[in-house]
Amino acid sequence: MNNPIKELTKKEWIIWLGSICIVCVSNLLTTDFDLLTLVAALVGVTSLIFAAKGNVWAQILMVIFSILYGIISYRFHYWGEMITYLGMTMPMAIWSMITWLRNPSGGNENVVKIQKLNRKHIIGLIISGVIVTAVFYYILVVFDTPNIIFSTISIITSFLAAALTMLRSSYYAVWYAANDIVLIILWVLASMKNPAYIPVVVNFGIFFINDMYGYISWKRRERIQL
User: Fold this and answer.
1) Distances (CA, A) of 213 to 21, 72, 104, 143
2) 42-49 long-range CB contacts below 8 Å, 24 or more apart?
3) Backbone torsions φ then ψ of 78, nearest 5 degrees
4) How many of the other CB atoms lie within 10 Å of CB of 32?
5) Which residues 6+ apart lie within 8 Å of 54 measured at CB?
6) pLDDT tens per residue, range 138-183
C-alpha cells in the first residue's frame, strides 16, 4: 500500500492540518490535559481525511482509534460507547479494510470502488439495525449506563455508519456525522461533571466537519465512478 499522505490535495492538506491544530490547541489549553485523548483525536482526524479519499489506511487507523476511544469511554463509565467501539466499530473496521482491499477503484489499489445501495442492502440495514439496537440497549440497562437515551442513539448511528462503510456507500459519512452530533451531546453532559472532557467535545466537532467533507468527496467520486 502506498503512502496515503502523498495523495492528499491542497484542500485536504488544509483541512487535515487545520483540524490537527485545533485539536492540539483545545487539548493543550485544558487544565486537565490528557495525552490519550489528544492521541485518539489525532488518529481520528487522520483516519477521516483518508476515509474521504476512500483510502484503505482509514480503516487501519479506525481500528486504532476504536481501541483508544474505548479506553476513554471506560474511564467515564460510558459503557455503551466502550462496547460499541470495541465490540462493533473495531471489528467492522477490520471487515471494511478487507472489503475495501478486495474492491479497488480502477488502477488504484489503495482507493475503494464506491457501491450503490440496492433494496437488499437497505432491508438488511433496517433489520440488523433494529436487532443491534435492541441487544445493545439491554446491555446498557444492565450496566446502568449514564445518559442511556443518547448512548442508545449513538449505537444505531455508529452501526449504520460502520455498516455503510463496509458496503462502500457514500452515505457512511452522513451517519458518522450524525453520530458526531450525538457524541458531542454525550460529552457535553460528561464535561459538566468533569471539565477534563471538554476537549473531547471539540474533537468530535472537528470530526463532524471532516465527515461532512468526506460525504462531499465521496459523492464527487461517485458521479465519476457510477
Assistant:
1) 18, 26, 21, 36
2) 43/68, 44/69, 44/203, 44/207, 45/16, 45/19, 45/20, 45/203, 45/206, 45/207, 45/210, 46/16, 46/20, 48/176, 48/207, 48/210, 48/211, 48/214, 49/8, 49/12, 49/15, 49/16, 49/19, 49/210
3) -85, 75
4) 11
5) 100, 105, 111, 112, 114, 217, 218, 221
6) 888 888 877 888 888 988 999 999 999 999 999 999 999 999 999 9
Q: How far is 134 from 144, CA to CA, in rounded Å?
A: 15
Length of the chain counted residue by residue: 226
Of 92, 11, 55, 43, give the one whose Cα is nearest residue 221: 55
Q: Domain limits of the chain? A: 8-102+115-225
| Amino acid making up residue 169 | S
Q: Are 86 and 154 in contact (CB under 8 A)?
A: no
Question: What's the grid cell of residue 53?
Answer: 479519499
User: Grid coordinates 450503490 are at which residue?
Assistant: 116
Owner of C-alpha cell 449506563: 145
Contact by Cβ (8 Å): 81, 184: no
The mean pLDDT of the chain is 89
Give Cα separations from 157 to 137, 163, 171, 179 (angstroms).
Answer: 13, 10, 12, 5
For residue 42, give the C-alpha cell.
Answer: 489525532
